[in-house]
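Exercise (ungraded).
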Amino acid sequence: MRKLFAAILLALFALQAVAIDTAPAFGDPVLQARYEKLSRELRCLQCRSETIADSNASLAEDLRRQLRELIAAGKTDDEIMTYMTDRYGDYVRYLPAVKGNTLLLWAAPVLLVLIGAAAAAVVIARKSKLPDDDLPEDDRARTGMDAP
Amino acid sequence: MTIELGHFALILAFCLTLSQAFFGLAGAAWRRPHWIALTKNAVIGQFVLTAFAFGTLMYAFYRNDFSVLYVAQNSNSELPTIYRLAATWGAHEGSLLLWLLVQAAWTLAVASFSRSIPEVVTSRVLGVLGLISAGFALFILTTSSPFARLWPAAIDGRDLNPLLQDPGLIIHPPMQYTGYIGLSVPFAFAIAAMLEGKLDSVWARWVRPWTNVAWVFLTCGITLGSWWAYYELGWGGWWFWDAVENASFMPWLVATALIHSLAVTEKRGLFKSWTLLLSITAFSLSVLGTFLVRSGVVESVHAFASDPKRGLFILTFLALCSGSALGLYAWRAPLFRTNTGFAPVSRESFLLVNNVLLVGATILILLGTLYPMFLDALDLGRISVGPPYFNIAFLIPMLPLVLLLAPGMHAGWKRASYGRTGVLLLVLLIVAIIAAVTLDFAAYGWHSIMTTVGFALAIWVGLAALVDPISRLRKGHSLSAGIIGMSVAHFGLALFVLGVTTTESYRQETDLSLRPGQSAELAGFQFTMTRLGDVKGPNFDAIESEIRVTREGREVAVLHPQKRTYRVQKNPMTEAGIDSRWTRHLLVSMGAPLGDGAWSLRLQYKPMVQFIWLGAFTMAFGGLIAAFDRRYRSRVTADAAVAATTRAKTAAKTA
Amino acid sequence: MVRYLIPVALLAALLAFFFVGLDRDKETLPSPLIGKPAPQFTLPRVGDPAKTVSSSEFAGHPYVLNVWATWCVGCRQEHEALLQIASRGEVPIVGLNWKDEMPLAEQWLQQLGNPYVATAFDQEGRVAIDWGVYGAPETFLINAQGTIIHKHVAPMTLEIWEKEFAPLLDQTAGRK
């Protein structure tokens, strides 16, 4: 129990220091932007609740170095992500891949908006056919109609 | 000895919560005035005893009593006094006791400020709140007691996590809990309405101020959490979509939907089952949040030490609490169907869409947070869902919401007729688009279409929020607190959107190394390290660098970032140096020494980031104003009101 | 009115998931390398940096790869067990010294005993990344065909060896 607590505390401590790169930034701003974007999509596996951009764990440092080398070698974003997931699994991606087991996750935003819109439309259509008199029991509650 | 007294007091408090629950619910069901009266006594007794129990724990921290296990785990004799006291809620057991105390305080508030509510209703509400308190008290007593002793006593404590040694710890958790637990009040009112079988506009008027105040606290709590993480961690981020952050944000979204749904129920007696469902869901999400944080079922940096046994208890509590509420809902909701309607374009329909979008956003966040757990439970793999996903997913329902806000807030009840206001809104939209494009090209430089959209929406909503109050003032009408509050809150949202759009589009950062005498440039500012030295704090040692910031030769700020090592736990921590202006923040964080007196530094430029928290606090302020509308503060008791109405009706009949 | 039952049904489903989710081990990450060929490497040898250790040396027979470091507390804990497993002589244990200092590693093996037939020195951590290492200690079992068939994260014990590694070893031996 105490060990668990200590482990959590340690993880918390490691969180607090910002991971600061000692290697120089890319000269090409496009490459640097890709580096910053991808390093925020990869999860640090030692400090689990940080990206490799933010974590100062030694593994995060190594993975940032690896990321830098892969970008410099001309790999595409997909190839880099595949490199990482080949070694660490899908867990290392903070932006989930679009695969069989994440279809629901990616479809959800659009699905919800469509279903929500449809449901709202149905309800509004029904309600617009009903009379808009006030309910009698609410006489004593009636406040001015211009109040919010 | 005192801690054992505290323990005993908690056991007594638990017994009183049971009697509060019994007398409250049975007294109302069987219409026994004596039992209803006893409920109020139980509430007072329970509050006093819980406060006493909490007090003994805080006293143990104050006295550095390391024979109490919880104190030994979370405090240290070198810890500054104020943090020793705040450490009472720094970990799982103590924070639960705080939860219980806040619940008792809310219950006392409901008992004290319910003169205009029929006793039968108040009694039921207090009864339900008693059941909730009983559940948490039992949880503490059986699985998470902060009163355990450590024998032999520790010579000194393990110290409070350095991250928590900050004013944020003093304010953020109490405020957050006040918000979470405040949502138990509309929950209890919903149960009371379902048990009684009566839900009308008057009920909505009772519930609105309580919901508003709870929402205000929750808004402040979340905003403080974001702000605290930002400056404490020096990382420049203000929201990470971490499971615990989401756990606080979901009840907030549902509570916002509830506030708006209550407006419809009060005004037109509609959306009754929606309002019931939202009341139940809001508090259920609070309980779910506490489950997620303490059970280890999702991974999170904020989580307390995870323990499946505790997780099982809260899960059972959630099942009983929400399950019975939703079961009651399934049984009673058909009673509340109405046959009144509204036009397709009306305030009601805008609020309906508002609710759908807010609930949709909540479902998306819940799905994203729990998805890794779902897949793992079904053996379909281990994945992560992080900020890149949430940032996209959340925006999808939020864009239409903010877009519809300007016309929505001016829609009339039953049937919206825009007339001159409609023209004004269109004009303001054009103004907003022009201003947005100007900001884009002239002020900051083109970024993307999303940036322009963000600017335009923020400006449009901000201007639209001012239209109603200004036109009323010009016509000489009075402004009720409700109208002022609504306008302020919506204006706050506009400020928030402006802050987020600007910061996320135009922020800059760079990592580099500097030694004393060297300079670097970022976003037009020069950062020069002038010196590097040692600093001794009360319970830490630090290396501090002085960074002089200039712009076009003129000095703008002098920052003192530190790299601290806390003496007891020996962990390094970064204190960022921040120059805060309303137009931008400049942050400098120290990384690691590189030898030769050089240090790695991160420099960040965050334009308009302060508007994010300003906007959120403005929203909270608006909600507070609205809660004090005159119609909620009627001095007439409920029975007198009924008597007056009956007299009026009789008079009308005989006339 | 069936639709009023939907919320409570959704709650029940959610609670069921939570109930299952409570018991899951969140710490250990499953390795995507199980069933894949072991990544090849050639690294300096601990104890004799002029020479190298290469994965091709162990091709053709099953072997165990143990990732360790002198800064790792769990590695100290498992060292006894590793010595005992090594003394049985059933399968060679190859060490991968991760993000460490050569003199410290040599001293460690001299003082505490050396269960490894050879130890590769991976100071930069590149080989470890290829093997999907995210913490120390980690122990891999590779079969005679050069495929990784098992990975254990956390300190090795004799119990875990008997329960997880020995049966798999017997299987591959039986298959040959």
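Further reading is listed at the end of the chapter. For now, observe: Residues 201-233 of chain B form the longest helix (33 residues). The mean pLDDT of chain B is 92.
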